[in-house]
Design brief:
312 residues; binds iron/sulfur cluster; binds 1,3-dihydroxyacetonephosphate; Rossmann fold; globular
């Protein structure tokens, strides 16, 4: 799309957003033009905190389905729309409610902590939700000897076990974007750039997290690059985050860890389903809309509110 065409769409979106009293919330993995247009850009926790306090009538969620669903659960009275309803999440899909129910039956005396990257049905089966930025805090809010199930991300679960000394039972789900980040690619980048610091999202495999100079959520990674004196960073997560990193620290260099030899990128195919034209259409026609049964809305709400309360 030409620059002029993008500008025209952006203008139209800005006009409609005002007219309809809509707010555009965008995740750091969205394409740069959507991040630049959004009212708020953040990680999963920040986006749900923003969703809970908005006065807007319509929430346009430029992210993936579970994020928009979370916004709907905490705002049942508002219209929540997503530019592309097919923008799912491989990690959320790795935990089906039927299988998870059977899994839980094996551990009747365990509390259930679920990472926010899961469906509303899984949230409804959980005691509390967490994100990558508050997972340690949420886990530590339980007594040392509490029996815990952690779902669905195995890498984050194992990482939290290693940090807290817990022995949580872990559902073996994973993210198809982070789990495939190759150690060899990192070693090659590090060999060519020995002065660069490695920063990684906790959805990466344990071996990468062990090698990393810093592990954190997308907002944590961004903050680290702002504050750390290093001039070069090897970034083990999705490409979208580089937009804000470069914006805040234009003098620094950021090297994304590629997952194959075809590009120096690592894109989440679901996050990248959202485009400016789809965002415009979604705001214009106020669809596709997130809808959930009132029963599911009610059941999934308590564990999210508990997380928001514990994160204050
Ligand atoms: P953050 O909460 O760190 O933004 O992560 C969301 C996500 O989907 C990572 O793959
Ligand atoms: Fe889901 Fe992975 Fe995409 Fe994050 S990067 S939205 S966990 S598929």
């Amino acid at each position: 799309m030409s620059f002029i065409a993008s500008l025209k769409i952006m203008e139209e979106i800005s006009f409609l957003r005002k007219e309809k009293n809509a707010i555009i919330l965008a995740h750091y993995y969205q394409v740069p033009e959507i991040q630049d247009l959004a009212d708020f850009v953040g990680d999963s926790l920040q986006l749900s905190q923003e969703a809970v306090k908005t006065q807007a009538n319509i929430i346009v969620f430029a992210g993936v389905h579970f994020m928009a669903e979370t916004a709907k659960i905490i705002n049942p009275g508002k219209k929540v729309i997503l530019p592309d309803l097919n923008a799912g999440c491989s990690l959320a899909d790795s935990c089906s409610p039927g299988e998870f129910k059977k899994f839980l039956q094996q551990y009747p005396d365990h509390v259930v902590i679920s990472y926010i990257n899961c469906s509303a049905e899984i949230k409804a089966l959980s005691d509390v939700i967490c994100t990558s930025s508050n997972a340690v805090k949420i886990v530590e809010s339980f007594k040392k000897d509490e029996k815990i199930i952690f779902a669905p991300d195995r890498n984050l679960g194992n990482y939290i076990n290693s940090l807290t000394g817990r022995n949580m039972v872990i559902w073996q789900g994973f993210c198809e974007v982070h789990d495939v980040i190759r150690t060899e690619a990192i070693i090659n980048l590090k060999a060519k750039n020995p002065e660069a610091k490695l920063i990684a999202h906790p959805e990466c495999k344990a071996v990468i997290l062990e090698l990393a100079d810093y592990v954190g959520s997308t907002s944590g990674l961004l903050e680290f690059t702002k504050k750390d004196p290093a001039k070069k960073f090897i970034v083990a997560t999705e490409t979208g985050i580089l937009h804000q990193m470069k914006k805040y620290s234009p003098e620094k260099e950021f090297l994304i860890v590629p997952t194959d030899d075809t590009c120096s990128c690592n894109d989440c195919p679901y996050m990248k389903m959202n485009t400016l034209p789809k965002l415009l259409n979604c705001l214009k026609y106020e669809k596709p809309e997130i809808t959930l049964s009132s029963e599911l809305l009610e059941q999934a709400k308590a564990p999210i509110l508990r997380m928001l309360e514990l994160s204050k």
